[in-house]
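Q: Can someone sanity-check these two? First one:
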Amino acid sequence: MRYSAFSLAREALRGHRDWPRAWRSPPPKKAYDAVVIGGGGHGLATAYYLAKEHGVSNVAVLEKGWIGGGNTGRNTTIVRSNYHLDANAHFYEFSLKLWEKLSQALNFNVMYSARGVLNLVHSPADIDAAMRRGNAMRLNGIDAKFMSREEIAAWIPNLDCSPHARFPVLGGLLQPRGGTVRHDAVAWGYARAADALGVDIVERCEVQGIRVEGGAIAGVETSQGFIATPKLGIAVAGHSSHVAAMAGITLPIESHVLQAMVSEPVKPILDTVVTSGAVHFYVSQSDKGELVMGGDLDFYNSYAQRGNLPVIEHVVAACLALFPSFGRLKLMRTWGGIMDMTMDGSPIIAKLPVKGLYMTGGWCYGGFKATPASGFLHAHTIAHDAPHPLNAPFTLERFAEGRMIDEKGAGPYAWAH
């Protein structure tokens, strides 16, 4: 349904009463052609592309809580494709191209903002690494530009680019097409579009068991009863190991908390995303004016969506080392997402060792920006029972076969953003 400016104003004055639902809330059927566990961006995108690209619309998305209540609503909204290794570069560039056209595809404004993602460098070794990465990106057809300290100082006056800075800025690698996307709009847009194609989105339906018969998926036991299906996709981020274990599969994944936080809202003062590997920090400014900040993992294993004070202290200290003028701002709120960290820092988008069982997970720090490509390729793998060329490298078997896709800093014990 479309609204004019006058109808929106009228509804606002009425207190937003009686607005139509953006998607249905049906009870689950007894059987589906495919079921996707997880009602975040990855699960909703998987269901949408199953229906849109493959004509498989008898699909259910099962979410134990509410749509977008997990990592989709607990991240820092950054999208980029500035990767070095070919498999990651091609995958994330495909995702970024989907982001660029996603608002039109879903007929829903996901607020993609190509404000650029700038990775600062602080040493000669950093410069060499950034140059190599930028050259690899350009060879793969991805936009990259190395900026000098003088160019950065003129562009971002709040950044301390003086030679006496705690972390002297020597330059930076910029991906101009990188930027941010509104996270909740992504969940709502995919949910509405999937629903319109006939997908059932079932909230408050917790998967409590996976039924395997004769080595193949038979269905799932849920808090709303048994649901039969021959194809089951797992898209549950930090709970991937927990859910896969229901089918007797052990994943090479650790779950950790990754915290983020926002300042009080202020007028526009930062029109790009700034990150620093040496400082372990990244920051951007939201559409509401808040400074959105984050840093390292909490390095203990956890399924908790909350963090601890030492990481908050680290992030704030890193912020002030780079942006001293931000010290007068108040911190408004913090939150934690559950990261499913693979041992090489790259995802698993693949068939699992049980017939009819598939997963997209192990996203480490990169889950949100992967959302469209993850859903597209997960859907392809489910529909064809075989991977697309773009996700063929991201198998579970690579860990046993020694075919790591290691970006040297994207895994659970190193910094990357």
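And here is the second, same format, sequence then tokens:
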Amino acid sequence: MKREEQFLCKEAFLTKNTRGRMYPIDDCPVRTDFQRDRDKITHSKAFRRLMHKMQVFLSPVGDHYRTRLTHTLEVTQIARTIARAMCLNEDLTEAAALGHDLGHTPFGHSGERALDKLCPGGFRHYEQSLRVVDKLENNCKGLNLTYEVRDGILNHSGDNLACTLEGQIIKFADRIAYINHDIDDAIRAGILKITDIPKEILDILGYTHSDRITAMVTAVINYGTSRQKIGMVEPYGKAMMDLRNFLFDAVYTNPVAKSEDEKVSRTIAFLFEYYLKHIDELPKEYLTYLETDGKERVICDYIAGMTDRFALAAFEELFVPKTWQYK
């Protein structure tokens, strides 16, 4: 922690100033609290399951499409680059980045929309990510993370604003990562060509994957080092949002990419209705919060934690007739 005081800028969040954990634990002789949070997250089951959760394309044929795990790693790499350049706390930034999508559903945002219709009070993946680290991981004991990491996880999306500069980085790192890797995957899938992207956007951000990431990251760093706030200098900020809006029209709502959305919605709805009638078939640890949080909330926890392939296997097991065989 002394190194933080020596090398980080005055706006950086120092580990010694943490608001702490919900439950006190003994100090570690070799790691800061934020390093320990990073390790808790990377050793969690929820983190490993991200390997088999889709990013944009459902169960794509090919080894090179992004998953929710590779997305998380790209976000973390970008976030650390920004934090280091601004002399902010890299360990805090890294931990929040690694945990930001732990609550994502199977089938990406299609699954999130489906659960949002079923879950009391709605379903938002960033809120579920916090629920995962607070309640559901570690056999429903939670990971007992520090306040600042939890805050960065919860406030990485939409208009939410994290309480630290390190946490605020995650929102920009997330957008930079998914905008660029989704272009890459859409081109690989044959539903987008680089020439489809408006020239005025490419003239600002660049014509290659690497150039665009470099331009966006540099724009965040330049904004931050001159203002000690997290943002993006113009014209790069506007160009990034224009590119994001373009992707919503060309990729995220593209009939090819979204051709299975209705099936996803029905699959999750069938699973939800089944477990409402057979709540005792959920793993015992998920029933920990049954009395306090209610049946519907607990079922949403279970379904949200599923990988794409587990959800499909569960649907097949429960609803697809099996061929009878004479024994």
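A (reply): Looked at the second one. The mean pLDDT is 94. The domain at 2-168+261-308 is CATH 1.10.3210.10 (Hypothetical protein af1432).
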